[in-house]
Structure formats: structure tokens, C-alpha cells
Design a protein that fits this description.
Chains A, B: InterPro entries: FAD-bd_oxidored_4_C (IPR004113), FAD-bd_PCMH (IPR016166), FAD-bd_PCMH-like_sf (IPR036318), FAD-bd_PCMH_sub2 (IPR016169), FAD-linked_Oxase-like_C (IPR016164), FAD-oxidored/transferase_4 (IPR051264), Oxid_FAD_bind_N (IPR006094). The structure is a homodimer. Helices cover 33% and strands 23% of the residues of chain A. Chain A is an alpha+beta fold. Chain A folds into 4 domains: 66 residues, Uridine Diphospho-n-acetylenolpyruvylglucosamine Reductase, domain 2, CATH 3.30.43; 118 residues, Uridine Diphospho-n-acetylenolpyruvylglucosamine Reductase, domain 3 (2-Layer Sandwich), CATH 3.30.465; 120 residues, Alpha-Beta Plaits; 88 residues, Alpha-Beta Plaits, CATH 3.30.70.2740. In chain A, a hairpin with a 4-residue loop joins strand 17 and strand 18. In chain A, helix 7 crosses helix 9 and helix 8 crosses helix 10. The longest helix of chain A is centred in the C-terminal third of the chain and has 17 residues. Chain A starts with a helix and ends in an 11-residue tail after the last helix. Chains A and B meet through helix 7, helix 9, helix 13 and helix 14 of A and helix 6, helix 8, helix 12 and helix 13 of B.
Chain lengths: 448, 448
């Protein structure tokens, strides 16, 4: 059972049992049984989450309900650009099976989760700027409630327009499975990009990042499909620890901050059409020539290499010491100010912490990673992590009106901050909602 | 008070009073007062809805809470591409004030509603295909609950990524104001289109519409910003009754079905770039040359003329007799089959009814309009309308798994069908939810 008791990066708990149903009916039977016998259930999808949302606690009393055998149903509706699929399918499997149709589920992640977990955490990813989050791409859901009957509900199905009451499916998106278990979904699909061009942009300074994004959006519209920020420390960590990477910078000198910009088109290149690389080049040239240009340097390069570095940041940072990671979000205009604030105050508060941030500048998400030496004081007993989290989230929420969880949802790891930052009225409403839907309780989070 | 008692197209009721607060605090005071004194409240925004969702009933006991003075707050955040605005602002005012920034709120409607009502009905409009509905474009909401305290809640604000619990703002979108009154919102903005090209496409037959849409999407991606269907009857009605229109078809012969296709780019035309009109032309030429081409005819024309006809359909149909209108939605692949089914069965069931449908093929929405002679039997006593609605919705929901309200929401007019087609469990949940949020009750719809 170890694979089901251990999280992707953190946590190892003990399960009373692992149950692996194959159909919605079986999930219903399991939940009904567990509710009637007072057994706590933790739904588990790909178990790739980073906030301890899918593993049992250490007490050994929780039943893990795994979706990993719910992989049979896969029905493409090409006219509707939608897919009806079981919630246990892996993202990679879904997109491999869709490839021949020229369509894909446009959530781009480093990990390879299953659909149910993506819905329960409302993941975003690297191309949010163009395609939005999971919420935007869910057309319908089948869920099973944790009540004595194991009630099965179907919402929305494959319709894009449907305003006939409360949009109940929203309740099950991004709430870590606490209100019901998603067993099947209908997803919006997009056309696969068939032309892309990528560039590394070096902004003239932190304050130049927003003008640069605005100029790119102004000149490229939704052709701009990614605008990802990478700090020097994060890049250095990746280059140091991921041997397959090549240092792409002149003389190997990593700039303070680098933007990975991607443009893409979803159709075959036409002869009459300006190639995408030329278009990107001329847009960058134009930006260089503006007064007080926000761009210090820029070069176009091979997409796979440029993305390989971006995708290796997480691994590199993890390997470079003891990592304490944050997934926070802001108004776009506040991102760099937040990062500067961290850089300014960290040395005094946590002198051993090295900031290795990267983020999705286009949508306001920041992966703030703080790396400590493995023997740093307070690591072993957790006191360092607690103090750091308290401070980072206080700055995020109180000073910047940001979010303490951009796309990782809650889980046990964020429970304390949910409790701290959620108004009592909202907690009461969530509590009441739980009574209405899954009074048996589900998952690892207490919303009430 | 007449303007507040009378709906845009249907209904004239009587109000006990009309209250016109100017701030969220004043809305709170009004709702608190009304709840404590047992007064029923109907929130009213632009009052342009078509399902009797914003007018009082005939009994004269309901208070109309108008948003029309809540127009002061208007705060553009250009970096974040978002607008924080009071809910009483007119859509046209919002977009006029945004124009200089190159941004707009991308919901394209024939009517000119206020923001609060657009949120309460989750409107879609003619460019849903590219920009989605209101739900997709709402980042944050301030709402006031109908409880004894007139509780004020703020959700989400200006963040694009925020997964820290239940996404409560979803509850107030598309639910006709029944769970709370939206007083302020934060909206996602998009860049204004700066290049467009439009064409009328004549599909080879009803079965060619979907292949045509798929080919267009394949070759144009999100450059395709509208794909609107217009039936001959709807076009004829507009040409007959709206004198400013010009008949654009060869020899004035209106085809059975016409698609208005629009492509757009949000940046200034560049010299190196193929003009959008040329691109559209070459795509259409390519489609003409495919085997079993789905296209019988096509011509590019001036955008304002082509859209003028599209936007006049509603008015033309209304003027051509006594109109009974439906706003239904389907999987995209079912739209034409549904319309064919109506054409096949209407003559026998409702021999005097003329079908004047048009719709948003790109998102599955159909405006099914049935026009009767003004003296048709059963019109005066409402029996014809009831029989027709019962039948059309039964085919929509039972035979096609479609929606009986695509983008008009519920209102008094759809109450009966909500009651009929909503499972008891969902009604119970909605009832419980109302108790949790606005126990005083609000609006014209009973969800429980």
C-alpha cells in the first residue's frame, strides 16, 4: 500500500485500506459503506499534489479511495471539441490519445496528474495566459457524494451554454474533493499548436517586466501563449543540478531575471504567411526601439531547449538544498514588487534562505522557493518552516491582497492558513454546504 | 415607477416601492430592513432581460431594488488587464470609458444591460466562441446577502489564480440574483480587435455546417471570433422590417442558411503581415477545393453591414408577427439536427408557426423564434404558448440533452421548466444553500 500512503514530495501516512473502484457505481457503493460505518475517506487521484491533499494521516484510520483504475471511458466529440472521460485517466494518456484528432486538453503541467485531481485542485500551469485553468475548461462533471446513499449527481454534461440554476459543478472544482468525488468529466478541448516560436527576454529591470508584458500583449494578442518568469537563482539551480541542460546565455552569464515568451498558432504554416519566428523577431525589434525600452536583451531559440530549462527549475531548486516552497498569486502588477520585497527582507529575517523564484507572470502566479542549507537551524523541528510560512503568507495576503494558494489548492499543508484567512461567515457557509452535500466528510481539508 | 415595473419585452407588474441605493453599504441597509420586515425584494439591473427576472409581480407587494445609481466606482488596472466597477454601470458606458486603453469587456450583446444583470444571468453573446461567457471573465465580486444583517461579502477580487476554498462567487453568477445582490465586480478585460474581416458563408446543406465550422477552426484557430448561423426566415424578417438594411445576396435571393464568420486580430496591421481579408479569402478558397466541400457559396463584405443584418434579426422577427422565443443550447453537433427536427414536426403540431431561428453555432446556442399570425388561436389565452413551450423544451431537454436556458437564465418565465427538469436532490441542495446565504429570499426565482 506504500504508493498510496506516500505523497509525491511530502508526507507518508498510514491507510486503513486502499479501495480502487472502477466505475461510478462502485465509488457510490464505497462511499455509502464508509459513511454508514463512520469511516473517513481520502480521495486520491494521481497523488502528485504538493499540499498533502491526497494522502492519509499517520493515525491509520482513513480509507484511501484511489481513482487509478477508473480509466475506461474515453469518448471524443470532435464536433463539440469536447471529451467525456473517466476521472482516473492520466493527463499524458489523455493528450496522447487525442493527438490524432489535432485536439488537446490545454493544461500544461510539469507533473502528470490524473483528471480527477486536476479538477479537485483546479490546476493552471504554464499556458494559463492563453487557455485558462481547469475551471474554464470543464463543461460537465459526474460526482459521488459522501452521504448514506452515495448519491450520484451529473452536472452540465457537454454544453457550453447552460444557465438553468446553480452551476453546481463549480463546487467540486478546486475544493480538494471535500464535497464529493469526481468520477467522470466532460472537458473542453483546444486545437494543438502547430507552429511555435520561443524567446528568452531579459527585462531592463524588475520594474520593466510589466511594461514588457503589456507591449507583448498589445502586439501579439492571444498569439502570446506563455510569459514565464525565471530568477537567476532558479536558473542557476537547474543548470547546476540537471546535467542534460545547456547554459544558453552569453559567456554562461545568467541575467538577474529572464522571461520565457512563447507565441503559437494552431494551424499549419501557410506560404503567404509571415513565419512566426520572423513575427516574434520584428515585435521584439520594435520593443527594443521604443523609448525607455523595457528590454535589455532577447534571443530566439529552439522551443524544446528553452522549455527544458523552464521545466527543470522545480527539480533543480529541490536538489540544491532543503526546499520550502510557496505557490502564491497576485495582481499581475504586484508580482515583481512582492519578489523585491522578499529579496529585501529575507536576509534579515531568514539569513540562510536563498530565494529561487519563478512564476507565471501572465496570470499572476509565483512559485516562491526558499532553499536552506540542509543543516539550517530550525529545519529538523519544523520551527523554521512554520515561521517562514507565517511571514510569507502574511505579506502575501495582508500586504498584497494576494492568494496563499494559487493552483495547489488546500490540503493538510494549507489548512492552518485557510483557518487563519477565511472569514467566519464563509467557514459557516462552507460547513453548511458540506452538510447539504457530503455530510460523511471527505478528504483532508476542513472547510468549516 | 413605471419604468421599473415594466420589463424590456414582456411583463408589467406593480412594485410596493422602488429603492435606488448608490453604495454597497446602502444596499446592505435596504436588504437588512426588508428582511427584518418580511418584505420581498426583486433586484433590478438594466431590466433588459427576456425571462421576467427583474420585474415585480402583479400583486404590488415587492420592493424593486434598482442598481441604476450604482455607477460611481470605475478603476482600471491596465497591468492586470482588469476593471473594478460598480454593478450599475451600463455595458456601453464601460466599453466607451475603456476605449482609450485599448481594452474592453468582451461580451458582445444586442441589448445594453448593466454589469450586475449580466453577472446574474451569465450572458454569452455573439463572440462567446473566442471570449467565453461572463463567468469566464469575472475575477471578483462584492455581494450583499438578504439576511437580517445585510451581510457584505467580497470574493476573489482581482486575482486570476486563487484556490483557497470554495469559489463562492460562482454561486452569484447566472442565478438571477436569488442568492445575493452583486454590487461591485472585478472583470477580466481583453484587447480590442484592431483588424477584422467578415464573410457570409452558405453551407452546402444543414449537415455541412459542422464540417465547415471544424475546417474554419482548424485553419484559423482563435483568429475565428464569430461563427453565427442565420436562417432564411430570420434574414427575410429583418430585411422586411428594418428599412436601413441592404439585401446583400445575389439577385436578392436569400439562401436557406447563412453563416456570419468573423476573423479578428487585436494588434495594428503590420506591413510584413498577410492582410486578414486575404487570409480569410485563401482559407475559404482552400475549403471550396476540399472533396465534398461543405461550402456552396461565400463572400467577404464590410463588417458593419454584415453585423447590422445579424443584429437586426431579433428586431425583424419581433416585428413580423406574434413572437414566442426560445433560447436553448446543445452540443454543437446537435444544433442543426434540432433545427431540422423543429422544421419537420412544427407544421403538424403548430401549423401556423413560422420558424425564424438564428444562433451561435460556435458555442451551441440557438435562438429559436416561432412567429405566429397575431390572431392565431390560443394566443390570447396563453394556451398556444404553453403548449409550444412544453413541446420545444421536451425535445430540447429529453431528446437532445440540451439546455432550456442557454444565456437568459431563469426568471419567472422559466420557473415551471426549472421545477420540471431539476432533480429533487438538486432543489433540496439549492434550498439549503439559500438558507445559508440569503434566508430572506430575493428575486423572482424559486430554486428550492
Amino acid at each position: 500500500m506504500a504508493a498510496y500512503e506516500t505523497g509525491a514530495r511530502y508526507d507518508a501516512g498510514r491507510a486503513l485500506a486502499v479501495v480502487r473502484p472502477q466505475t461510478t457505481q462502485e465509488v457510490s457503493a464505497v462511499l455509502s459503506y464508509c459513511v454508514r460505518h463512520g469511516l473517513a475517506v481520502v480521495p486520491q487521484s494521481g497523488n502528485t499534489g504538493l499540499v498533502s491533499g491526497s494522502t492519509p494521516d499517520a493515525a491509520g484510520g482513513q480509507v484511501v479511495l484511489s481513482l487509478d483504475r477508473m480509466t475506461r471511458h474515453f469518448a471524443l466529440d470532435a464536433d463539440n471539441r469536447s471529451l467525456e472521460a473517466d476521472a482516473g485517466l492520466l493527463l499524458s494518456d489523455v493528450n496522447r490519445r487525442l493527438e490524432a484528432s489535432g485536439l488537446f486538453f490545454p493544461i500544461d503541467l510539469g507533473a502528470d496528474p490524473r483528471l480527477g485531481g486536476m479538477i479537485a485542485t483546479n490546476t493552471g500551469g504554464s499556458r494559463f495566459l492563453k487557455y485558462g485553468d481547469v475551471r474554464r475548461n470543464v463543461l460537465g462533471l459526474t460526482v459521488v457524494l459522501a452521504d448514506a446513499e452515495g448519491t450520484i449527481l451529473e452536472f452540465g454534461q457537454a454544453l457550453r451554454k447552460n444557465n438553468t440554476g446553480v452551476d453546481w459543478k463549480q463546487l467540486f472544482i478546486g475544493t480538494s474533493g471535500a464535497f464529493g468525488v469526481v468520477t467522470r468529466c466532460v472537458l473542453n478541448l483546444e486545437r494543438l499548436p502547430l507552429q511555435t516560436a520561443t524567446a528568452y527576454l531579459v527585462p531592463a529591470g524588475p520594474e520593466a517586466v510589466m511594461p514588457l508584458l503589456r507591449m507583448m500583449e498589445e502586439r501579439l494578442g492571444t498569439t502570446l501563449s506563455a510569459f514565464e518568469g525565471m530568477s537567476r537563482n532558479a536558473i542557476a539551480a537547474a543548470l547546476d543540478h540537471v546535467p542534460s541542460l545547456r547554459n544558453p546565455f552569453q559567456n554562461g552569464e545568467i541575467p538577474d531575471y529572464v522571461i520565457l515568451a512563447e507565441v503559437s498558432r494552431t494551424w499549419q504554416a501557410r506560404e503567404s504567411e509571415e513565419p512566426l519566428g520572423d513575427m516574434l523577431e520584428s515585435v521584439l525589434a520594435e520593443i527594443f526601439e521604443t523609448e525607455a525600452a523595457p528590454l535589455a536583451d532577447a534571443f530566439i531559440g529552439p522551443a524544446h531547449e528553452m522549455w527544458a530549462l523552464r521545466h527543470a527549475l522545480s527539480e533543480g531548486v529541490k536538489q540544491s538544498g532543503r526546499l520550502i516552497a510557496f505557490d502564491v498569486a497576485f495582481r499581475r502588477g504586484d508580482i515583481m514588487a512582492f519578489c523585491e520585497r522578499m529579496k529585501r527582507d529575507m536576509p534579515e529575517r531568514f539569513p540562510q534562505g536563498r530565494i529561487c523564484d519563478f512564476g507565471h507572470i501572465g496570470d499572476g502566479g509565483v512559485h516562491l522557493n526558499i532553499v536552506f542549507p540542509r543543516d539550517a537551524e530550525g529545519l529538523a523541528d519544523g520551527s523554521l518552516e512554520t515561521a517562514l510560512r507565517d511571514w510569507v503568507y502574511a505579506v502575501t495576503v495582508e500586504d498584497f491582497a494576494g492568494s496563499f494558494s494559487a493552483e495547489h489548492a488546500i490540503g493538510r499543508k494549507n489548512q492552518h492558513y485557510y483557518d487563519l484567512y477565511t472569514p467566519q461567515k464563509i467557514k459557516d457557509m462552507a460547513c453548511g454546504l458540506l452538510t447539504l452535500t457530503s455530510p460523511g466528510g471527505l478528504g483532508t481539508v476542513r472547510f468549516g
